[in-house]
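Support request from a user on the community tier.

User writes: "When I paste my structure tokens into the form, the page sometimes reloads and wipes my input. The last time it worked, I copied everything first. Here is what I submitted, just in case something in the input itself triggers the reload:"
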């Protein structure tokens, strides 16, 4: 019997391609070429599965043009690249990679918070430019982290990991806002207190965004929300581009309406709003919050396990629209 055909849309660990090749006829993109939507559609012809990485938009147009597609396995916990209702309507399963990246991503959220509050990259650029000629009492004096108030917008697994680090590691008062309030025992384990969004914005010394991107969360932090923040506050976005209005943030940073920001994700990435590149009080990283070798490998393995689990064994590991399974 011939093996099912799958497409791996981006370059990935060769060992993962080898694992997939045991079960599938694999077409891959190990040269990591940038494909247009038309390229993606052309390459998905006759494919039962797609290994995607979050950058490939799977929408009604792609689905209509690729009738053999049965599963799209994202190597990412976020899946805003999937039109999930359209996938469900077509009987196409979506999967993502939760859990395996939680702690690593929470570590990075904290790293970005620290770098932002303590002006790590700004001071390094100063040193590298040869501008450090003498010590002075107020040189790169930043914001206190320990003992301050940590605000978290979006309190899923990663938000909870950041809360634990803040409350238990840095003695921070942790407040959060989320669509739904956590159970009391989960709040207690995270050391976190639920507040309304306005109170979160007004009270946090450091605000970390960890909410999923959707039409509802588009520009959840814009000029009006930034105006509510303390002038000494810092803002960190490790969630998704588009949650922050980057133009409004760049203006606020330039005018020092908030102290600083740390951004790992951007509207329209990999493009970065040009104004963000010219303000000094922002730390910029290229969407690397989950990027440790072990975690990226675990994410790739889980995406592969979902393809094998569904197409070979009929049991995906982390389905996003399990109603498709009942209908299959
Ligand atoms: C995720 O898993 O969603 C990360 O942002 C990597 O894309």
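"...and here is what came back when it finally went through:"
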């Amino acid at each position: 019997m011939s093996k099912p055909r799958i497409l791996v849309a981006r370059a990935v660990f060769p060992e993962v391609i080898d694992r997939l090749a045991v079960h599938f006829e694999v077409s891959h993109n190990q040269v990591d070429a940038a494909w247009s939507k038309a390229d993606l559609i052309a390459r998905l012809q006759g494919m039962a599965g797609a290994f995607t990485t979050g950058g490939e938009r799977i929408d009604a147009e792609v689905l209509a043009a690729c009738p053999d597609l049965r599963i799209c396995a994202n190597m990412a916990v976020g899946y805003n690249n999937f039109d999930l209702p359209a996938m469900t309507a077509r009987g196409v399963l979506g999967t993502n990679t939760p859990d395996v990246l939680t702690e690593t991503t929470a570590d990075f959220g904290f790293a970005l918070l620290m770098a932002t509050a303590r002006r790590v990259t700004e001071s390094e650029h100063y040193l590298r430019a040869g501008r450090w000629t003498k010590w002075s009492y107020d040189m790169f004096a930043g914001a206190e982290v320990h003992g301050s108030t940590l605000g978290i917008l979006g309190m899923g697994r990663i938000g909870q990991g950041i809360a634990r680090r803040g409350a238990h590691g840095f003695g921070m008062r942790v407040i959060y806002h989320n669509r739904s309030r956590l159970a009391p025992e989960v709040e207690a384990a995270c050391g976190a207190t639920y507040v309304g969004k306005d109170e979160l914005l007004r009270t946090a010394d450091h605000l970390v965004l960890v909410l999923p991107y959707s039409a509802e969360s588009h520009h959840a932090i814009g000029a009006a929300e930034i105006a509510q923040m303390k002038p000494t506050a810092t803002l960190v976005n490790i969630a998704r581009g588009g949650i922050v209005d980057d133009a409004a943030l760049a203006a606020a940073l330039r005018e020092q309406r908030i102290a600083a920001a740390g951004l790992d994700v951007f509207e329209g990435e990999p493009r970065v709003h040009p104004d963000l590149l010219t303000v000094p009080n922002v730390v910029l990283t290229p969407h690397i919050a989950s990027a440790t070798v072990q975690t990226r490998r675990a994410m790739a393995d889980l995406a592969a396990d979902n393809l094998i689990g569904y197409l070979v064994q009929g049991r995906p590991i982390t389905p996003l629209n399990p109603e498709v399974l009942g209908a299959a």
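Agent notes: The reload is a front-end session timeout and is unrelated to the input. The radius of gyration is 21 Å. DSSP finds 14 helices and twelve strands in the chain. Escalated to web team.
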